Amino acid sequence: MSDVLFDAPGPRAIARHRIYTVIAMIALLGVLAWVLWRLYDSGQFSYEKWEPLITPAYVRALLVEGLLTTLQMAVTAVLLATVFGLVFGVGKLADGAWIRWPSWLVVEFFRAVPVLLLMTLVFYSWGINRGSSGAYWSVVIALMLYNGAVLAEVFRAGIQAVPKGQSEAAYALGMSKSQVTMIILLPQAVKIMLPAIISQMVVALKDTSLGYAVAAPGLTEIGERIYRQFHNEIPTIFVVASLYIAANLVLTAIATWVQKKFVGEKKPLEVGMIGELDDARKP
Length: 283
Description:
Largest sheet: none
CATH superfamily of the largest domain: MetI-like
Helix content: over 70%
Number of helices: 11
Strand content: under 5%
Number of strands: 0
Order of helices and strands: HHHHHHHHHHH
Structural class: mainly alpha
Low-confidence stretches: 266-283
Number of domains: 2
Radius of gyration: 25 Å
CATH topology of the largest domain: MetI-like fold
Oligomer: single chain
Distance between the termini: 40 Å
């Protein structure tokens, strides 16, 4: 059987692909072994460098002061970004130009500005004199603005993805556009947007690491304090990266579960089903 874009590979092509795969795996394993040997040769696996990372006090600092604070910043930023995105996403669909164009300008501006620049701008214009809380909220506000602008496009696309027949039927009943959007379209669009919203939380969680530029609390800040004291940069980076990866895997699993639970998997129409639909349309 041939595909639309290319013919199905024959026995010789399949054999070549398997050989290429084995060669690539051997090359990757060789590079990994070389990197591990270089780290071992430079003493990065010595007990002195890893001992602080298994000390209960520092483990507690990484998990409680670091990881929990990072998750708190990410969750707060995403909740605020959801509200921000809902307001400006719906605003971009408004009939009035005095609402539509300012909403478009805000969304496009904050989508284009880098997150690190937003954090620095908020910190030096508002949070620099407010201590640790100022740095904390500088990160949250910057993540809210950037991720909110992204979610605004998600909301807009989700609302527009709802079949037009839904809105036409609501208009036929005499409902206003705001009623159609909030009562008819938005609840249906949430099912489409929910995985994207949760996936955006993964982006916000990773971007909290940029808070080191404004001395914000969190996982990166705790890791920085540890390796500055013990000069164990690489082991600390491994541990901090592992915590970020674990948190992102959990969020990805939640997103997958939510998609299956609330969205479901769309099954393609079979030939018999299409025939039944055609028969139902007949008078």
